[in-house]
Design brief:
alpha/beta, Endonuclease, Chain A, disordered N terminus
Length: 204
């Protein structure tokens, strides 16, 4: 049987703020050297701009009934502080997102253009690899959900009601294979830049 633990049930944290949750995630990221992450419907947290992050927090707070305490600027600052981990070039970050995620407007059109501009700049980071799966790509795997592989030691799967942590060898190998299959359909570097530029133009 898979070694599954429900690590962070958001409903248990209804009285906590997003600030505290961001601090907990930052502690985990500090100890991870290699991160591979497939994110289904939005920009990965470490690559978000403040305005985009605020839009994400507001929508999650409304769903989980956090109320006003979950949506303040302190939560955005906490997420931006997390992004300092990207400056540690001893760490490697490999992200995959579908092209459709670039067109989900969680903030104003101007802020979406800024977010896409930020992603274009991210392509220049030596320790960040961003792959975009085009809308018309022939995929080797149906992307049922997002997941993150941390140092090939565990897999994190984020859901509306919590986060699953998988640690069995079989589960890790399966998600490693899933990531490679998804990555085989992705575009990188200049081709990814072209997709980002096209999405940016769509918000003009």
């Amino acid at each position: 049987m898979s070694d599954v633990a429900l690590k962070a049930t958001y409903r248990r944290f209804l009285n906590d703020t997003h600030v505290e949750l961001q601090h907990q995630v930052a502690e985990h990221e500090h100890d991870v050297t290699t991160t591979r992450s497939f994110v289904c419907g939005l920009v990965p947290g470490l690559l978000q701009t403040p305005e985009y992050a605020a839009g994400v927090f507001e929508r999650m707070a409304a769903l989980m009934k956090y109320g006003a305490q979950g949506t303040g600027p302190e939560a955005v600052v906490a997420r931006m502080n997390r992004q300092r981990v990207l400056d540690d070039e001893r760490k490697q970050f490999d992200y995959l997102i579908p092209e459709a995620a670039l067109y989900v407007p969680v903030c104003t059109l101007e802020a979406m253009r800024a977010q896409l501009d930020h992603l274009i700049a991210t392509l220049n980071r030596p320790n960040v690899r961003l792959g975009i799966i085009p809308l018309n790509a022939q995929v080797e795997l149906v992307p049922f959900h997002g997941f993150t592989i941390a140092d090939d030691k565990l897999v994190l799967i984020e859901m509306f009601t919590g986060q699953l942590t998988l640690t069995s060898d079989d589960d890790i190998r399966l998600h490693q294979d899933a990531f490679e299959r998804l990555a085989s359909s992705a575009l990188y570097d200049e081709e990814a830049r072209s997709l980002l530029a096209a999405a940016q133009a769509g918000f003009s």
